[in-house]
Amino acid sequence: MMRKYYSVILVFVLLLSGCAKIYINKGIGYAKQGEYDQAILNFNKALEINPKHAEAYINRGNAYFFKGQHNEAIKDFNKAIEIEPGNAEAYISRGNIYSAKSEYDEAIADLNRALEVNLRYARIYNDLKNDLGLNSFLLKDYWQYYYDRKSAYAMDMAQLRALQFGKFKYRYIGPFPPGEKEISEFNKVLEINIKLAMAYHNKGLNREQAGKTQEALDSYKEFIQFTNFLPPQYDSQVNYVKQRIRDLERK
Questions:
Q1: Which of 108, 135, 162 finishes a domain?
Q2: What is the end-to-end Cα distance of the chain in Å, rounded?
Q3: Which domain holds residue 92?
Q4: Do 129 and 147 share a structural domain?
Q5: Quick one: which of 18, 118, 178, 202 is 20 to 30 A from 184 by CA?
Q6: What is the rounded distance in angstroms from the CA atom of residue 251 to the CA atom of residue 236?
Q7: Residues 129 and 181 in one domain
Q8: What long-range pairs does 26-31 form, CB within 8 A, spacing at least 24?
Q9: Are residues 48 and 100 in the same domain?
Q10: Ordered DSSP codes for 71-115
Q11: What is the mean pLDDT of each run of 10 residues along the chain (251 residues)?
């Protein structure tokens, strides 16, 4: 008799979970179309059915994020973590919110926690942590390390610009002959400028996601200033940013 009772309870729980999942999937569909209010309504329905559904909280938190309601988003991610402390996605999502709020220590702490609870996120973690450093020069001396410490490379910005010709020579003719001093300097120039360019690229994406159009435009335009230093494999990013500038300026 007791076994039958537990079987009925299990079936009931599974049915509830399935019903909640239907609303979660509908909410995700609305979110993909940018209809965040409708998405939130569906996630609300999922949580009415199952108030312990971490996935519903995570998805609703992401919808709040895209609406610019960062505090509401953090509450949802906190709840998801309370329900499932081992949910790496919740930590990553909350870390993104902290980054958008310029709370960078908290953002990096959440990315660290995501890696701790789920090692399969290692690659994502490394990419995101690198982006955190680039997005807004978040690590304490990131900007100084790649830009202001010119003495480490014995160059100033005038010299960097002077080597622009070398970049075109590298791209269209080939690398400098081995042994020339320029090849070492040129590689350092490329390293610095690629990192700076991608810093502005990522910062622009971050600001646009946060709904800060003018800041996004400013960052995208700074990125374009560095594009003459970028190797050919960055052409897709250059074209994308140029299109985003056109689109945002039309708004």
A1: 135
A2: 66
A3: 2-135
A4: no
A5: 202
A6: 23
A7: no
A8: 27/56, 27/59, 27/60, 27/63, 28/59, 31/59, 31/62, 31/63, 31/66
A9: yes
A10: HHHHHHHHHHHHH-TT-HHHHHHHHHHHHHTT-HHHHHHHHHHHH
A11: 43 53 88 86 93 92 87 95 90 80 75 70 50 43 35 39 39 39 54 69 78 86 77 80 90 73
Distances in Å between the Cα of 91 and the Cα atoms of 88, 97, 114, 178, 241 are 5, 10, 5, 47, 29
What's residue 98's pLDDT? 82
Q: Which of 19, 24, 55, 20 is nearest to 39 (CA)?
A: 24
Query: Total structural domains in the chain?
Result: 2
> Residue 136: what pLDDT?
42
Q: What is the pLDDT of residue 191?
A: 64
Report how far Cα 7 is from the mean position of its chain's Cα atoms. 44
- Residue 135 and residue 203 in contact, taking contact as beta carbons nearer than 8 Å: yes
Do 194 and 237 share a domain, yes or no?
A: yes
In degrees rounded to 5, what are phi and psi of residue 153? -110, 0
**Angle, vertex CA 64, rays to CA 62 and CA 66, nearest 5:** 70
Residues 104 and 149 in one domain: no
The pair of structure tokens assigned to 121 is: 């996120």
148 and 165 co-located in one domain:
yes
Compute CA distances 203 → 78, 100, 133, 147, 239, whole Å: 25, 10, 10, 16, 17
Q: Give the end of a domain, one of 113, 135, 157.
A: 135
